[in-house]
């Protein structure tokens, strides 16, 4: 777990970085369904981040149905996560074909990355603006 | 598992409350009408450039300075009037710990013990071994990093309700800085214990803080939960058709930067609407992103003296 | 600059222009006064002023030759390391300040030789050699014992006292002096010692310049060992006050006993051995031993009254200010440490007396004086007196340590300086004036009555100030301190009356009036209000 490197100065909030990393670990099989994740305290001490950040990441993953927060026992990966892995497996070819199409337009790797990030950022901003107005 | 600070802090009173605090040294105002409150159980980060007043503010909390105007209350008491009960619950680590140079490491720990009823000698010993401090070594033979580690043990071993760290990492190597961050996280994961720390190293502040307050030349620029600070500061980049010889005037912008065709402003997201501003200036909006903590810091420290982002608020 | 030597000397001159100017001014003034008033009615005062000018001139000269670079922590420094990068040999770097210092001190002595050696029996050449040696030792200690910090001043003081004693040796009993105690032999011995010291210092500085070698580190660890040869604290502390007492004791309480021990061992003991056959000198040594703690407590008390003993800074260090101890407790602990310090110093003196008096002393004169003075009194009174004298001495010592706490702990430098200067003025006035002022006052009944009224008013003022000073403090401390004050005052009153009873027969005027003056002065002796004020001073300083 300590091999996670979080960069506080990048644009992404720390908890999101942690969420992404945990998701990636689960998808690649480094963490399997039913495994117990380190406690909030241990995770925070290992990564040197505020425990609230860890709590938020765990909560988000709980809401997404990936983790299960069992009171008193700890944090576990849900059994149903394997279903999600399938979804991710389905997503991979979609990405592959999209990137193929972009490369055929003679776009470089950096351009492609920037386009995807801008698109995600715009959607995020729109989501937040909607949330604020709500 | 700890509750998120937003809902938790309403129930218990703030650990430290500073109201309209003013203090001058030789005619120059070091703190100018500062009001803030530190909620319990959080990590409260205090940033500002050199001479902004961070150390002065922290020393007021310890009773080392007396307020000229305004009040300071820690645990509900005045640290100047009642030092014994307040200081017994505080652990303090300053930039240069200035521990007595003639004492030995073990003697220092034994000396500190009776002052704090909750002193845990085993925990202190465990930390001492972990940090590699020889018990018979004299403090003056310790390197700067070891000195800081010893100061950290002395501050932390009695599990204080409030841990105050005044630029503890300055000039220290990354391993010692890591030890300090671990101590901060250890403290705050114990229920109800609070950490206030001031630092220049923004990445450290960003990693561990719940709340962030910034001082600039003695005034409080903002004091809010870290996430709020980051969402409310936005960085807008504009591209002009014609070269601008003077910086474009954007009301409620905290800082305006740039040259020629391309200009960037840092602003409060609540007060500034990006497209409206673009129309008003007659420029195209190139980028609208969240400002990084570095940019926020520089904007508030260097920018024109515009009003602060938030009204300095007590508890969110 | 023509040569490196000139450049280095020019630097010393530049840094200390004003001091050198003051030395010149003092010398000029002193010689002028001395020349104008050699004979005549004001001769005594003139000689006193001249002596004062001379002393200050020499002290200032030593401050000019304080050839060190201050370290970051402030205070006295070490040999200027920045000179190491100059293309000058280490021998030259060391020799230039040493030789210049010797030349300067000899020159100053030359100018002052006439007033100083008038009436003395020591040859000027002998004194000149001793002074040169003192300069060498002074610089050597400054440079080699840099680790000892301000303790160096203590070491230099002891060396100066030792050299002074050496200067007195030839005229010591029994005269004529045996060959080893002749001036020539002693001069050669001291000169040889100075030369060896110079060589060692040169080796040391060269070693430091070369980056420190094994010899360098050996010397430093020896000094470490000497300056802190105290056992490490092993047992846990029961109370915060106990822990802080240990801290204050280690930081400031051991200085006075160490100084007293050093002086008794290095100066008084040899002198007592030399004087063992002569009754007159025995009396002098006895008085010297009894006076040592009281005299040494005066400068130590000035340093003790500051929040940090060895530092010039009058602020409360953060380490102490953040302790969860009330300011009252902090002051009470300082007072307790002062008591322990005074008690230990007197214990050392008493141990020395217990060893020396039965074994080596010629007590003829002492016992004769004692029987004469104490003729009428019972043995009980005599034993009572034997107890009162050390207790009174202890109180006097303790008093010097404690009476400046109110100004030293306040953090206000002008206040502290004013109280130190008034002490210095009082002491020098007492030394120079001798008995003239009391004589003048006591002869005329009108003046004496005025004095009595003045002292009575002072006592009333002291009591009212004490009430004001102690009003906010805890009753426990008030009770404890009142007990101390009453005991101390009673001791002084008893001692005063006994001394009065003895001395009255020898006084040329009516001494009965003197008794009331003695009682009133005893009431003023023990500080009451000042200790109470110390607490508010510390509170103000701790929370600035």
Task: Describe the 3D structure.
Chain A has helices at residues 14-28, 40-47, 51-63, 81-104, 109-133; strands spanning 36-37, 67-70, 74-77. Chain A has 2 domains: 14-79, Orthogonal Bundle (Arc Repressor Mutant, subunit A); 82-133, no CATH class. Chain A contains 5 helices and 3 strands. In chain A, a hairpin with a 3-residue loop joins strand 2 (67-70) and strand 3. The mean pLDDT of chain A is 85. By secondary structure, chain A is mainly α. In chain A, strands 1-3-2 form a 3-stranded antiparallel sheet. The radius of gyration of chain A is 17 Å and the shape is globular. Chain B is an alpha/beta fold and 316 residues long. Chain B has 2 domains: 5-217, Rossmann fold (3-Layer(aba) Sandwich); 230-302, 2-Layer Sandwich (Alpha-Beta Plaits). Chain B contains 11 helices and 12 strands. Chain B has helices at 5-8, 54-62, 83-87, 105-112, 121-131, 144-156, 174-189, 202-208, 226-232, 274-281, 293-302; strands spanning 16-25, 28-38, 43-47, 69-74, 90-93, 162-166, 194-198, 211-216, 219-225, 233-244, 253-268, 283-290. In chain B, strands 5-6-7-3-8-9 form a 6-stranded mixed sheet, with helices on both faces. In chain B, helix 5 (121-131) runs antiparallel to helix 6 (144-156). Mean pLDDT of chain B is 85; it is low at 1-9 and 306-316. Chain C has 2 domains: 65-227, no CATH class; 240-542, no CATH class. The longest helix of chain C is centred in the middle third of the chain and has 34 residues, at 327-360. Chains B and C meet through helix 3 and helix 4 of B and helix 9 and helix 12 of C.
CATH superfamily of the largest domain in chain A: Winged helix-like DNA-binding domain superfamily/Winged helix DNA-binding domain
- Compute the number of helices of chain A: 5
Strand coverage percent of chain A? 5-15%
In helices, the fraction of residues of chain C equals: over 70%
Low-confidence stretches of chain A: none
Give the amount of beta strand of chain C, in percent.
under 5%
Shape of chain A: globular
Largest sheet of chain C: none
The domain count of chain A comes to: 2
SSE blueprint and pairings:
The complex is a heterotrimer of chains A (134), B (316) and C (544).
Chain A: H1 14-28, E1 36-37, H2 40-47, H3 51-63, E2 67-70, E3 74-77, H4 81-104, H5 109-133
Antiparallel strand pairs in A: 1-3, 2-3
Chain B: H1 5-8, E1 16-25, E2 28-38, E3 43-47, H2 54-62, E4 69-74, H3 83-87, E5 90-93, H4 105-112, H5 121-131, H6 144-156, E6 162-166, H7 174-189, E7 194-198, H8 202-208, E8 211-216, E9 219-225, H9 226-232, E10 233-244, E11 253-268, H10 274-281, E12 283-290, H11 293-302
Parallel strand pairs in B: 3-7, 3-8, 5-6, 6-7
Antiparallel strand pairs in B: 1-2, 1-4, 8-9, 10-11, 10-12
Helix pairs in contact in B: 5-6, 6-7
Chain C: H1 4-15, H2 17-36, H3 43-64, H4 90-117, H5 124-144, H6 151-168, H7 183-209, H8 214-227, H9 240-253, H10 255-274, H11 279-304, H12 318-321, H13 327-360, H14 364-373, H15 379-402, H16 405-408, H17 413-433, H18 436-443, H19 445-470, H20 475-503, H21 512-525, H22 529-542
Helix pairs in contact in C: 2-3, 3-4, 4-5, 4-7, 5-6, 5-7, 6-10, 9-13, 10-11, 10-13, 11-13, 11-15, 13-15, 13-22, 15-20, 19-21, 19-22, 20-21
